[in-house]
Design a protein that fits this description.
three-stranded antiparallel sheet, 3 strands, globular
């Protein structure tokens, strides 16, 4: 196993923290299909523009999304398409957990 620096794991933890919010996961899922402007995402997330912008800022800081300006509008783009594999892994883990819970409760 390759030994990595403490700083590497700090950066990895920052990405994990950025993913650890339901609204940010929803945003990342939406960005897989196309670029979105902040104004569209407020409706999608069900939060005001400042809250959505904060979520996007967190994702941008760790390199998961990028932004571009078009006039007064700001559009966000998914920079990490490999998230699909991560999300598939999460779904498998959730499915296994659900199955285990159902077996444990007799459902």
């Amino acid at each position: 196993m390759k030994t990595r620096s403490r700083a590497y794991y700090e950066l990895r933890a920052q990405v994990a923290k950025a993913l650890a919010h339901p609204s940010r996961l929803l945003i990342l899922d939406a960005l897989k299909a196309r670029d979105w402007c902040v104004c569209e995402m407020t409706e999608l997330v069900g939060a005001d523009q400042s809250t959505v912008s904060k979520h996007l800022s967190v994702l941008k800081q760790v390199g998961l999304v990028s932004m571009r300006k078009e006039g007064p509008m700001t559009f966000y783009h998914l920079e990490c398409p490999c998230l699909d594999g991560f999300f598939q892994c999460m779904e498998a883990a959730l499915s296994a957990r659900l199955q285990h819970l159902q077996q444990g409760t007799g459902k």
